[in-house]
Amino acid sequence: MTQPTNDEDVLRQWVGKQEATTDTLHATQSRLMQALLDQQPSFDTGDALPPLWHWLHFANAVPQSGLGQDGHPRTGGFLPPVDLPRRMWAGGRLTFNAPLLLGETVKKLSTIKEIQLKRGRSGLLCFITVSHEFRGEDNEVRLSEEHDIVYREEPSPDAAKPQPQAVPNTAELREEITPSSTMLFRYSALTFNGHRIHYDKDYCRDVEGYPGLVFHGPLTATLLAGLAQKRGNSLLSSFSFRAVAPIFDTDTFCICANRSGANQVEAWAETSSGHLAMTAKAEFS
Fold first, then answer.
1. Which fold has domain 161-285?
2. What is the pTM of this model?
3. Enclosing H/E stretch for 270
4. Cα 67 from chain centroid?
5. Considering the domain 1-158 in this protein, what is its CATH number?
6. Are 265 and 171 in contact (CB under 8 A)?
């Protein structure tokens, strides 16, 4: 472990660092995810894993003593020792070569691809891109992923709030999602995610200044990928998403999708007030 720092020269020494893990994709996790989504559990060994459900696996088994105040693993191990308190899942890009199958033992290779420090309206920001490569039992790369993480300073109490963004045109496919603290707790448990913004209301309100529990960005992206696949009526070949604004457990929100080309779908999540929360693009083979 290295002392926290915002010295970019030190942080960039982590570029190229790799971490290899292996996990067996037990069907139980997918059946529990179906239950969380209020579906009848039905998945079994040999079934294809739905897009983005690989996030239910490869849990980061960090001991309690290795967690920070926010419940995330402390930096300085695989991730660089960024000296900024707030962490956000900002977006990602995925390429699907072939399905991962339930029951398979899969190898995951993670690589720190890029680290950048920038100063924005909210203060200092650190952008980290991590690539992940997933190989099945045939040793073929089934799934490639780039994951964008952003660390930032604590916002100033008098800092101007970002202006909400308008949503795209009227959706061809639209579903309403009603979040709850139980739903968020179950997803945190399924993914072994200790980040307190998803289950600790006192921490959300008193430390991070949020009006409620924060809906998981990965869960929003997973819902959008499922809706895009439904609208495209085919298997995904690629999917990208970008978080725009947080969603809270205090209100319903909608996931939406439009076909934007012969083999393309654009999708987004919008708050009950009509503001954009996440954007996504899907392509089909």
1. Thiol Ester Dehydrase; Chain A (3.10.129)
2. 0.94
3. strand 264-271
4. 19
5. 3.10.129.10
6. no
